[in-house]
Amino acid sequence: MSAETASLLVLGWGNRSRGDDALGPLCVEALQDALPTHLKRQVEFLEDYQLQIEFALDLVGRERILFIDASLDCRAPFEVRSALPRRDSSFSSHALSPEALLQVFVDLQGHAAPPATLLAIRGEAFELGEPMTDAAQAHLTAAVAWALDWIQR
Amino acid sequence: MTFALETAANPEGLRRVAIDPVSRVEGHGKVTLLLDENNVVQQARLHIVEFRGFEKFIEGRPYWEVPVMVQRLCGICPVSHHLAAAKAFDRVVGGYPVPASADRVRRLMHYGQMLQSHALHFFHLSSPDLLFGFDSAVAQRNIVGVAQAHPEVAKKGILLRKFGQEVIRITAGKRVHGTGAVPGGINKLVTPEERDLLKRQLPQILAWAQDAVDIAKQLHAQNPALYNNFGSFRSNLLSLVRADGAMELYDGVLRVRDDQGRILFDQVSDQNYLELIEEEVRNWSYMKFPHLKSLGREQGWYRVGPLARVQNCDFIATPLAEIERQAFVAWGQGDLVHASLAYHWARMIELLHSVEVIAELLDDPALLSGDMVASGERQRSGVGIIEAPRGTLIHDYDVGDDDLVTRCNLIVSTTHNNQAMNEAVRAVARDYLSGHELTEGLLNHIEVAIRAYDPCLSCATHALGQMPLDVTLIGADGHVLDRVQKASDGQLNRQIASAIGLEA
After folding, report:
1. Does residue B334 lie within any of the structural domains?
2. Average pLDDT in the B229-244 region?
């Protein structure tokens, strides 16, 4: 790991202008703001519209990874699970699943991927131009509190 | 150029097959095939089942916000929307033409976007089909399969895309939600350190880009029957070109060729696009059908994107891509190349061209210093047209005295190709599906044809848990015979289920 690479990568994705799809980016933003100063050099925060192949290169040299996305089918307010490399079909068009991204990392780097955790935050509505729902806002608050604690463990 | 197979003569007694949505295609699309009792295709349509509401999203906003906000219309080509909107508002603020430095920085951003988008599409969305075959095991036919079987190909794709993203980050200011282009110019020049960072990577990137063209060319050479005929149909071609006829992807005039290669329209100003194009609504799709006004809906539809651009221009002004363009033209043996799979080859020629343009721009001192913004007499409207990775992208705005957008009209690349994608589906349905039992591999043939156009059917909403593939069979009596759902992890769930409610 190079001196510049933070040991923890927090990577959230979604579209801030599509209602509850903003949960991933807004969670990243809130964590960035709330993180104690002495930890800031140990954590890198990234957000994008979608999880993309080049993020496999962002996983290099990490000790832990936290993926954050909105979810339509997890329990409210959020669910947490380990993400393991997996050859899924990634039919989700131009985007990859976290598991497929980890598998791309393994295939490209030739060694195990860093341990990764997926934080799935329950969302309800994803229409263009719509604000986040009240329910999602509450789920976000709970998820940020959990993630802040997890980061500092 | 007629609409055979768009509407069946007697649809009541036909079996329906729906593929929903098309995998590895952005957004929500659905293909329905009406089959008769002998499995012969009587009707084939690509439906867009999500209403996007772009105009509602933009109207009422201050114009200076729009180049940033429109990036959220699409998570796949945000930079293209950013630049097309900025170009439109250059006119509104009287800032056209923008200063030389602003032009160079925007061009660098645009060609970086072209490079990263084309690399993603070829190496990671289409290479599974192209390398493994359309009938290969579904578990293999994805990027992870490519990474395992051809790690060097997958890695080149990632690193090409990463380089393009670096170009965007440097010129747009951020990796996402960039703000680099503003009405009348830019808000950031390139620093010598940033330029040098990119220049150091160029020799390797150029070599990989040449390799990519070779791969695409070899695919055609190895199986000309497939690549020349799969999803092939004749059409008009529309794109921007430079005033002298050169390929031009950032700013130019509109040109149209007919299916024989004759120039129908040329030197049409982007500000006058409505004199050339009109859009038609059909009741079975939310996506409109643009066509050339003067030729009408049946003769006037056209294709945009790499296949159109490489053949619409008279030459490419960078040497390596021009050599490849000439090889592509020679492949047509005096006729235009109309095969849908030739999009991949043309796309890689553009990828190579993009790297060459980036190299030229990085040697231009205007990148590093000079005026960043121009202004002039305020106008009430403006049009910005750009050749986005998927094709011609039109942004058209009216702005009130209060600086709020009062009207906007966006015609995105995929909309231009709406009729063409439908034609590709019909060609494949006619050639591959009729008279056969339906299998996943056969259905994938249809998806391969659509993917050749790299369509972007919607915006970036990819919450975990969405069901990405849904195939429904409906019998002649209207009852659901079978339904297969394919989850994002590849699991198949087969069940008898209720009808999905889409009008055929």
Report:
1. yes
2. 96
Six token digits for residue B386: 């750009």
∠ at Cα A148 (A147, A150), nearest 5°? 60
SS3 sequence of B148-207:
HHCHHHHHHHHHHHHHHHHHHHHHHCCCCCCCCEECCEECCCCCHHHHHHHHHHHHHHHH
Q: B488 and B452: one domain?
A: yes
Cβ neighbours of A100 in B, within 8 Å: 142-144
pLDDT in tens, B210-224: 988 998 898 888 889
Residue in A18, A52, A97 closest to B488 by CB: A97
Q: What are phi and psi of B56, to 5 degrees?
A: -60, -35
Establish if B345 belongs to a structural domain.
Answer: yes
Domain that holds residue B96: 54-416
| Burial (0-12, 13-18, 19+ Cβ within 10 Å), B101 | buried
Q: Is the peptide bond before B21 cis (omega within 30 degrees of 0)?
A: yes
CATH assignment of A8-151, among 3.90.1640.10, 3.40.1180.10, 3.40.50.1450, 3.40.50.2300:
3.40.50.1450
First-to-final CA distance of chain A: 21
Cβ distance B489 to A88 less than 8 Å, yes or no, reads yes
**Which amino acid, residue A105?**
F
Q: In the listed set B361, B389, B416, which residue is the last one of a domain according to the structure?
A: B416
Question: Same structural domain for residues B40 and B74?
Answer: no
Q: Cβ atoms within 10 A of the Cβ of B76, count?
A: 28
Q: Quote the CA–CA distance of A122 and A87 in Å, as a whole number.
A: 25
User: Is B119 touching A (CB cutoff 8 A)?
Assistant: no
User: pTM score, two decimals?
Assistant: 0.86
Same domain (yes/no): B187, B201: yes
ipTM for the predicted complex: 0.82
Residue B350 sits in the same domain as residue B428: no
- Residues forming a β-bridge with B405: B399
DSSP3 helix / strand / coil % (chain A, rounded to 5): 35, 20, 40
Q: Is B192 part of a structural domain of the chain? A: yes
CB contacts under 8 A, B 124-143 vs A, are 124-125, 138-139, 141-143
Residues of A in contact with B78 (CB under 8 A): 49
- Measured at the CA of B365, the angle between CA B364 and CA B369, to 5 degrees, comes to 135
pLDDT at B428: 84
Total tally of structural domains belonging to chain B: 2
Q: Is residue B501 situated within a structural domain?
A: no
Q: Which of B416, B433, B448 is the last residue of a domain?
A: B416
pLDDT higher than 70, residue B345? yes
Q: Which of B25, B175, B462 sits opposite A50 (nearest CB)?
A: B462
Q: Burial of B278 by CB count in 10 Å (0-12 exposed, 13-18 middle, 19+ buried)?
A: middle
